């Protein structure tokens, strides 16, 4: 073989190796994602995802339902909007499949105006660790129960969503002769101190007195299943109007508008708050928070399969290698996330604490009822 041909072949082989290495580097830098049907995918520009292009071409002109389905495939890389292009067969969720249904649009609901526009705004300062400061989570509520033996105890939590209503878990409302819900407290921070005060910037701040209310009506979801914890969501209407003009009490926002309703939680962290049992084995007197990662629907389903618990799209799962998550006493409390809502940065309640492992924050993901799927039910059951 002539020397010039040998050099040419070696050069081609070298160029091929460089090309393949470049392709592998590009693929390695392309973030993975989870599709709405719980499959794996790659977050790429829409014009590079052939299944999406085919779907658009087959269904043009697109209906509103088609647009909402495609929107659920959105993902973001470096603030650039892309689509989660599936690695295997492309599955478009069907509106006829109850497990794949999309959250309802309630912006035209007759009771939509019962939800305040001034919501989700915290007046506190974030502190290091898991402690919270005064006014940091002013929507938190404590549910007080009369015990069978004697006395009372706070056994569940909830959130203020307007001047009359508390959002909580349905299982917190299914009481018995030995455990009766008798009142709700808002504006609390540290249970055994009155008033709640803290020092900051050379000054001492004290919160307004707590507000305790009798219960006018409990509204658990009619399809709540105490065995599977499906539809674990409920409302409490209080006997008197909440004073939300004080710094220590303020309603949280719910996922109502389109920009916050179709949320992809993959690779995101969320916040949970409550007075539940800590690693000391006792309930906390002080309101605490934890930041936890969202676990994919597929991972959560696999984790609970052995326990014959079915996790659906109407739930969100979280977990942390350090064991940070909700605990006993946090039931009914919020899974929260800061996002841009109605032109302002606000805190949105995306989940209600439902159930988890026997040992707090370890072994199995924590499971939350996903609020956006129940917005029509929430508004249906609210009144002025």
What would you report as the Rg, rounded to the nearest angstrom? 25 Å
Number of strands: 18
- Taken in chain order, the helices and strands follow as HEEHHEEEEEEEEEEHEEHEEEEH
CATH architectural designation of the largest domain? Beta Barrel
- Distance from N terminus to C terminus (CA atoms, Å) equals 92 Å
Number of helices: 6
Strand order of the largest sheet: 5-6-7-12-11-8
The CATH topology of the largest domain turns out to be: Thrombin, subunit H
Q: Please tell me the total number of domains.
A: 2
> CATH H-level name of the largest domain... which superfamily?
Trypsin-like serine proteases
Structural class: alpha+beta
Strand % is 25-35%
- Mean pLDDT comes to 81
Question: What does the largest sheet look like?
Answer: 6 strands, antiparallel, barrel
Family: Belongs to the peptidase S1 family. CLIP subfamily.
Domain Clip: 32-85
GO molecular function, one term: metal ion binding
Keywords: Calcium, Disulfide bond, Glycoprotein, Hydrolase, Metal-binding, Protease, Secreted, Serine protease, Signal, Zymogen
Q: Could you explain the architecture of this structure?
A:
- It comes from Ignelater luminosus (Cucubano).
- It is an enzyme of class 3 (hydrolase).
- Residues 121-383 form the Peptidase S1 domain.
- One of its GO terms (cellular component) is extracellular region.
- This protein is α+β, with helices and mostly antiparallel strands and 384 residues long.
- The protein has two domains: 30-92, mini-chromosome maintenance (MCM) complex, chain A, domain 1 (2-Layer Sandwich), CATH 3.30.1640; 121-380, Trypsin-like serine proteases (Thrombin, subunit H), CATH 2.40.10.
- It has six helices and 18 strands.
- The chain has helices spanning 3-29, 50-59, 64-71, 258-261, 297-305, 375-380; strands at residues 32-34, 40-44, 74-77, 80-86, 140-147, 152-160, 165-168, 179-186, 197-200, 203-206, 211-220, 234-238, 269-274, 288-295, 315-318, 334-341, 344-355, 366-370.
- Mean pLDDT is 81; it is low at 22-28 and 93-98.
